[in-house]
Amino acid sequence: RTVKHLCLSISVTAQKAIRILSVCTGVVELALWVNFGGPRSLFAPGAEPNHNPTPPAFPSPANSSSEPVANPGVYLAALALRRLSIEHKHIVSFFAAPRSVRPAWYSTLTHLEVVFWERVLAPDIPGIGELTSLTHLSLGLRHASVHEKSEWVEVIVKSCAKLEVLIPMANEDDELEEPFLVLERCWVVPLHYPASVIANWEASYWGLPDNYTRAYDEIRLKKESGGVEGSSSVRVLGLDTTDPR
Q1: Region Disordered: which residues (predicted)?
Q2: Residue 238 falls within a domain, yes or no?
Q3: What are phi and psi of 243, to 5 degrees?
Q4: How many domains, in total, are found in the chain?
């Protein structure tokens, strides 16, 4: 339980990732970029290789000292995460999987980064409303097709009652829209993809700038330029760059 910050990149095999998750039970910040692959994600119910029933939502004492079960969702569900980065299909599969116990991080997660391995113009994340503490969301879309009239943006913001910052990530050569407000409470701040996703992920641990501090800077510039109508009644983020995570 001593490991609190963990980054499992695409170079880590699914089997090794499951074994690591089975022993690192105290993680609060997790980047899970492992390709669990196959026609169905291993997060989905009934996706175990031997087609056994879906394991319980939490590891039981009976299997805690034996071989890890094949479904990584068993271990992911037990973590009290504050911050998570995960591939789009994996998290959608996780949300869809039936379970008898509510995953711990549904109540604790404040920062979510969704990675897209396939091009998606209008992302749909059914189940994201389960994250009752979510305040910051980053979407690695790799395109700039985001504007104030994008219906999917409002759908996501409406689903997340506490969401304050939504960052759609575009490719380096894409032209970005300026930050804009949705429902008078959530800033949508399009940004270019960072040069190094690992460095960006680790930045907050070392107290260095990351995507969210970049977003705060953009919000501040928008505020100072007078580009926010009715801003006197709107909570404007980014005036304090110390983002508590």
Answers
A1: 45-65
A2: no
A3: -90, 110
A4: 1
| Residue 244 counted as domain residue | no
3-state secondary structure of 236: coil
Please give the Cα distance from 109 to 164 (Å, whole number).
14
Q: How confident is the model at residue 38 (pLDDT cuts 50, 70, 90)?
A: low
Predicted pLDDT of residue 227 = 67
* C-alpha 134 chain-centroid distance: 9
Which among 171, 19, 18, 170 is positioned nearest to 90, based on CA atoms?
18
Q: Which two tokens stand for residue 146?
A: 């985001």
Task: For residue 240, tell me if it sits in a domain.
Answer: no
How far apart, in Å, are the Cα atoms of 140 and each of 89, 107, 108, 122, 231? 13, 23, 22, 12, 28
Work out the average pLDDT over 137-150.
Answer: 90
Residue range 163-211, pLDDT digits in tens: 999 999 999 899 999 999 999 999 999 999 999 999 999 999 999 999 9
The C-alpha atoms of residue 4 and residue 1 are separated, in whole angstroms, by 7
> How far, in Å, CA of 112 to CA of 135, rounded?
9
Query: Going along 26-174, which residue ranges are E strands?
Result: 29-32, 83-87, 111-115, 136-140, 165-170
| Structure-derived torsion over alpha carbons of residues 34, 38, 40, 42, reported in degrees to the nearest 10 | -40
Q: How far apart are CA 146 and CA 26, in angstroms?
A: 36
Q: Are 37 and 89 in contact (CB under 8 A)?
A: no
* Residue 242 maps to a domain: no
Residue 182 gets which letter from DSSP? E
